[in-house]
Each structure stands twice: as structure tokens, then as C-alpha cells.
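Propose amino acids for all 163 sites.
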């Protein structure tokens, strides 16, 4: 990630994954109690943070694209009209990208393999379940499994927006 703000958020999440692994080692060694509850809490928190990274990345990258490519008055109008995008499942992301560039939407549709689409959609679904107090079976391993494909989506968008 080239954007300083996004790279910082990614680094914070990477560090969180590392701290979670350290904590899991303590649990496995029997030096910490509440093993299952803590693992579940950390998995939910990681899910929320990774989803937040996606939201921030898409909003920031599109705003930067608008600032560079639109006249100031149009850029302001477009940014205000766009608002702050959240809960960006694959189809919603495709629709949003199509508003900017139909070629990008076509490229993104091809780039979104089932693995990437499922990772993004599953993270958003789990985040919404967590936020509304519903049960979720999200685990640390599952969030980690979804993290790489989601980073690939962000990198893809960054390449398009900052080219």
C-alpha cells in the first residue's frame, strides 16, 4: 500500500494479528485463562478492524482520485454526493466502482475471484452480525484467511485510482 494512512492502518492490523498469536501461545501454555472467550473476542475485533480498513481504503482512494481528476467544484460536489461508503460487499463495490469508470468495473469483476468475493462478503456479513449482537462463528484463523484476499482487492483499487 502506497498511501501512508492506509499503510498505517494495515500495519496496526498486522500488529494486532501478531499480538493475538502471542496471546494464543500463552493460552496454549496454560498461563492464561478464558481461552475460548478471548480467542472469540479477538477474532470479532480483527473482523471489525479489517472491514474498517476496506471501508477506509475505498473511501480514501476514491476521494484521492476525485481530487486529482476533477475540477475543484466538481470534486467537492462528487465527494459530498459519494458520502462515506460502508459495508462494501463485492456487488456494492462493483456498483460503486462502475460510477467512476466502467472499465474499472469490468476489470474488478474479472479480478474478483470467488475467493476474494467470498472473503469480502463474509467479513462484512460477520461484522454486521457482531455489530448487531448476533452470534457469529468467526475465528482468528478465518479472519486471517480472509485478510490476504481483501488486501489484494485494496491493492487492485489503489493501482486503478492512483495510476
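Proposal:
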Amino acid at each position: 500500500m502506497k498511501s501512508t494512512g492506509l499503510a498505517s492502518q494495515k500495519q496496526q492490523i498486522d500488529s494486532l494479528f501478531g499480538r493475538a498469536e502471542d496471546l494464543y501461545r500463552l493460552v496454549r501454555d496454560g498461563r492464561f485463562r478464558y481461552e475460548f472467550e478471548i480467542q472469540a473476542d479477538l477474532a470479532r475485533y480483527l473482523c471489525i478492524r479489517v472491514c474498517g480498513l476496506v471501508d477506509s481504503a475505498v473511501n480514501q482512494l476514491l476521494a484521492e482520485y476525485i481530487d486529482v481528476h476533477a475540477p475543484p467544484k466538481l470534486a467537492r460536489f462528487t465527494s459530498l454526493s459519494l458520502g462515506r461508503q460502508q459495508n462494501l460487499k463485492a456487488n456494492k463495490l462493483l456498483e460503486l466502482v462502475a460510477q467512476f469508470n466502467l472499465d474499472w468495473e469490468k476489470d474488478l469483476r474479472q479480478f474478483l475471484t470467488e475467493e476474494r468475493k467470498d472473503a469480502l462478503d463474509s467479513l462484512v456479513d460477520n461484522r454486521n452480525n457482531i455489530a448487531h449482537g448476533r452470534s457469529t462463528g468467526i475465528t482468528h484463523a478465518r479472519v486471517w484467511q480472509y485478510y490476504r484476499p481483501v488486501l489484494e482487492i485494496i491493492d487492485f483499487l489503489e493501482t486503478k485510482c492512483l495510476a
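The radius of gyration is 17 Å. Residues 35-69 form the longest helix (35 residues).
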